[in-house]
Amino acid sequence: MTRRIHVIGVGAGDPDYVTAQAVDALNDTQVFFAMDKGEAKDDLVALRRLICERFIREPGYRFVELPDPPRTRTVPDSPAYRQVVADWHARRAQVWASAIENELAPDGVGAFLAWGDPSLYDSTLRILETVAAHVDIDYDVIPGITAIQALTARHRIPLNDVGEPVLITTGRQLRHNGLSGSAVVMLDAECSFLGCPAETRIWWGAFLGTPDELLVAGTVGEVGDRIAELRADARSRHGWIMDTYLLRSAD
């Protein structure tokens, strides 16, 4: 029999971001799989457990924490970067496939809880596609509120200028290609916004939707250094950081 897997987007940190559709999927799940990323990120697993405790009406589900395979560290700009990520995803797929076969009954229902939305800068769907080539599973995707939506809501701004596009990119791409118009930047450990013209507008947020939320807005010239300092301090205190920002050129 085919095992079913829900990939549930649980929003960007605030349990109130969990949708009614996600609540239905949570209550349909028997086994939740979560990656153990070490002591520094224990609170991420704890928040997943909190969401389940809040929204699941009848106990009886189980949490299975999976060891995250080590990832070779390499510079994102290097030629080896994509291969390193592909190898890491392949090792994750092996761990997931084994856990699904060993921890979930042949007709059971499991779930992975994804921060924000599973379609946006998240590897869950790519890895499950690999798993599905080796294990008999069927999976669906429950969309969630993204960090981008949380960021613009908290800053009370529209994502785009009237009739204009918005690029979703990374810090590496921003450094290589520069900024034209508006861009949301994710996965930027290098504070690449500091390379933008001083008059560029920036709306930055970290730990969105959590009690540790940080928000700063202004021009890069006015607040860029402050954001870099806040980011470094927050990462030092927490051991990790999730942040994103919206840039808008002055042109």
From TrEMBL:
This protein's pathway: Cofactor biosynthesis; adenosylcobalamin biosynthesis
Keywords from the UniProt entry: Cobalamin biosynthesis, Methyltransferase, S-adenosyl-L-methionine, Transferase
Domain Tetrapyrrole methylase: 4-223
Record carries keyword Acetylation: no
GO molecular function annotations of the record: precorrin-6A synthase (deacetylating) activity
Recorded superkingdom: Bacteria
InterPro entries: 4pyrrol_Mease, 4pyrrol_Methylase_sf, 4pyrrole_Mease_sub1, 4pyrrole_Mease_sub2, CobF
NCBIfam families reported in the protein's UniProt record: CobF
UniProt protein name: Precorrin-6A synthase (Deacetylating)
Annotated organism of origin: Mycolicibacterium moriokaense
Phylogenetic lineage: Bacteria, Bacillati, Actinomycetota, Actinomycetes, Mycobacteriales
Gene behind this protein: cobF
